[in-house]
Amino acid sequence: MYYCLMGPPGVGKGTQAVFLSEKYGLEHISTGNLLREAVRQKTKLGLQAQNYMNQGLLVPDNLMIALVEEVFQKGFILDGFPRTVPQAEALDSLVKRKGLALDQVILLTLDEEELVKRLTGRRVAPKSGRVYHLYFSPPKKEGVCDETGEPLIQREDDKLEIVRPRLQRYFVEQSPLTAYYKEKGLIREISAEGSPEEVRQRLEECLKKN
Ligand code: AP5
Questions:
Q1: Which terminus of the chain faces fewer neighbouring Cβ atoms within 10 Å, N or C?
Q2: How many angstroms separate the alpha carbon of residue 141 from the centre of ligand 1?
Q3: Each residue's pLDDT tens digit in the chain (210 positions)?
Q4: Coil, strand or helix: which one is 156?
Q5: Beta-carbon neighbour count of residue 67 at 10 Å?
Q6: Alpha-carbon gap, residue 11 to 150, rounded angstroms
């Protein structure tokens, strides 16, 4: 099974990808998580990507395509890739070279004000990678990760002044990509409204129909 999970920042791609990977035994490849780890480890890629990420800008296609080629493996759910038509074309040729095909591209959608709430309330544990929300999924003890006890932080790109322009750019950048997959008949739009459980149920229904 080969799925791409797309959608605006904060829509819940990471939250749902974790569930899908556990349920269907798929490798969860999150380009955002891979980049954040590269930044944390101060690798060459991390140093090149950090400024773009902090400002909520896309990292250049050549870096992203090389990264995905490196981590590509059998049976995956790709979270946050592709984000541009050149990335989608590179993914097409990569899966073709391996004699595979994408099963489906799932586009999660949500109202902009809800996205702002999800993004600005998100808190993350940098080492464990666990994601919390101040109101929707708070940690047991305020400000620390349930798993590791490390302090939770707010991502630079989740600050309100970055979130608004980041969302605006997303809507501009996403439109040609959606058209690209619509033409191939691969895209399914799913509403990300409601609780994580409700979204999960919609996703499962969609995958069953596939
Ligand atoms: P990335 O980490 O992929 O960021 P993103 O796409 O902006 O998505 P987010 O991680 O912000 O949100 P999400 O949809 O995963 O939401 P989540 O599940 O956490 O990328 C970061 C950066 O890396 C990019 O800006 C770019 O610079 C670079 N990059 C990455 N991939 C790239 C690419 N292919 N090309 C170029 N650059 C790239 O949920 C959000 C919050 O809401 C959480 O707190 C969660 O607990 C909560 N929540 C989730 N679902 C629900 C729900 N149903 N109800 C209530 N709360 C919910």
A1: C
A2: 23
A3: 889 999 999 999 999 999 999 988 889 999 999 999 999 999 999 999 999 999 999 999 999 999 999 888 777 899 999 999 999 999 999 999 988 889 999 999 999 999 999 999 999 998 888 999 999 999 999 999 999 999 999 999 999 999 999 999 999 999 999 999 999 999 999 999 999 999 999 999 988 777
A4: helix
A5: 19
A6: 25
* Pocket flag, ligand 1, residue 130 (CB < 6 Å): no
Are 49 and 39 in contact by the 8 Å Cβ rule? The answer is yes
Helix runs in the chain, H state only:
13-24, 31-40, 44-54, 61-71, 85-97, 112-120, 160-183, 196-209
- Cα–Cα dist 113/68, whole Å: 31
Q: How far is CA 29 from CA 4, 59, 83, 104, 120, in A?
A: 10, 16, 14, 15, 24
